[in-house]
Design a protein that fits this description.
By secondary structure, the chain is mainly alpha-helical. It contains twelve helices and two strands; from the N terminus they run βαααβααααααααα. Strands 1-2 form a two-stranded parallel ribbon. The chain is globular, with a radius of gyration of 17 Å. Keywords: Transferase.
Amino acid sequence: IFLLIRNPKDVATSYYHYSNGLALLPSYETWDDFFTDFMTKKMAWGCYFEYLSEWNKYADKENIMTITYEEMKENPALSVKNIATFFGIPLNEEQLHLVLDRSSFQSMKKNSDKTHGSVGNILFRKGGVSDWKNLFTDDQSKEMDRAFEEHIAGTKLGKKLKYDLYCKA
């Protein structure tokens, strides 16, 4: 099982844009309204902190590989090599470069209409790290920091997220 996790502030930011772009989900007039629902567990797919807490129960299992979105952005080549090794897939340099090219955010965004249809432009918005800084107020950032500390900071997955590096302003 391959488990990809992402820092909670960027999850909320992406979900906000996704919700407002997809007609099937509730849209929000303001970021503040969305943030309130996100923090009070009123999301269609539940609470992200509870999701991480549940997966943390299995984080030490040998058949589960966990990687963060931030790790993949920092070093895509190493991430692809580690994923291939985990699944027992031999990968030569030519194959590695092909995978890196085809799985880059820019490539996936460019081809999203073919691969994901009309939701492609919604799914592939920016692909960056720390976009949360464009939406969160200082108080909202502190509130999410408290929730992180309360729910997952001391867990294996919480430590893997490198919260201080990616989530602290």
